[in-house]
Design a protein that fits this description.
With 93 residues, the chain is α+β, with helices and mostly antiparallel strands. It has one helix at residues 2-38; strands at residues 46-49, 52-61, 71-80. The mean pLDDT is 84.
Length: 93
């Protein structure tokens, strides 16, 4: 009787850990892209706010177990814009 409960709790823990790791990678990617954009490199989803360059990244979890309850993850990171770059980038948001 307790084995199915233990397996279910373990499965839910693994799925939660997976979502946490994906969010961590998404935040790291947004941070890296913000640094690149502050150096004048072309990056998507860039927003210029005075002395800052901000980048937004989103990802939807909708496959596998997430097909039952799709989750949308998002990350936003900003970096200083010392040179005032507003290079030719796509400003999608």
């Amino acid at each position: 009787m307790t084995l199915p409960v233990v397996v279910m709790v373990f499965g839910i823990s693994v799925v939660g850990l997976q979502a946490g790791l994906i969010q961590y990678r998404l935040q790291a990617t947004a941070s890296d892209d913000a640094r690149l954009a502050s150096l004048g490199m072309p990056v998507e989803n860039v927003r210029y706010d005075e002395d800052l360059v901000c980048v937004t990244r989103t990802q939807s979890l909708s496959g596998g177990v997430w097909a039952l309850w799709p989750v949308s993850l998002g990350a936003r990171a900003c970096a200083l814009n010392p040179a005032g770059f507003q290079a030719s980038v796509s400003d999608d948001f």
